[in-house]
Amino acid sequence: MILVMKNAVPPVMDVAARIAADTLAKRGPDYTDEVRRLLDAALAIMGKHGTTARARVADIVAAAGVSNDTFYRHFSSKDALVVALLEDGTDRLASYVAHQMSKESTSERKVRRWVEGVLSQTSAEAAATTLAVLWNGSSIGTGVTAGRHNASVPLAALLHEPFGALGSVDPETDASLVAHATLGKVADHLWARTRPSRTETEHITRFCLRIATP
């Protein structure tokens, strides 16, 4: 006979917690798919409308083929979705820049590739999509929806190795300063709907190299 002890101290993970954890683990792939469908649908709708009309949650869930309950299971608001889109874009950009840098054998060329890769976000298609996402944030002009998010962290990390090889005594700090400065120029061009000239790109590159080289 198994006795039910009402006042006994429950184990670290009781039956209820274990079952809940098992259920969540089984739903993990489904949830990942739901989030990706929502992100892709939101990006497509925002990109289509640009800065002429803000995407509605109803439009996003319809395009993703999910319900409102599904949307709010993963995002507390549309602003939270915008933050996720920016983070997803940062991950994609960092992966692209890292790939471009891997093609080079010297530290100086890696830095040049880094600058070119980051500034590529001012191209017509990339700029239009980024502006559309930012414009869909309700607190435009401040915080994350103004573009001041953590993009500098993963992008700066890509410069740690080449900066160290170039002689920087503090590669992490130097890379962080360079990343913030370069992303600041990207933001300037995004809002002005312009692209840096070859002269400006070269100037930024030389600035980055001077920072890294004693």
Summarize the structure.
By secondary structure, this protein is an all-alpha fold. α1 (15-49) packs across α6 (124-135). The chain has helices at 15-49, 57-64, 68-74, 78-101, 107-119, 124-135, 152-157, 160-166, 171-192, 198-212.
Key attributes of the depicted protein:
2 domains, single chain, 214 residues, mainly alpha, disordered N terminus, 0% strand, Tetracycline Repressor, domain 2
Describe the structure.
Helices cover 70% and strands 0% of the residues. The chain has helices spanning 15-49, 57-64, 68-74, 78-101, 107-119, 124-135, 152-157, 160-166, 171-192, 198-212. The chain is built from 10 helices and no strands. The N and C termini lie far apart (77 Å). The protein folds into 2 domains: 14-75; 78-214, Tetracycline Repressor, domain 2. With 214 residues, the protein is mainly alpha-helical. It is globular, with a radius of gyration of 22 Å.
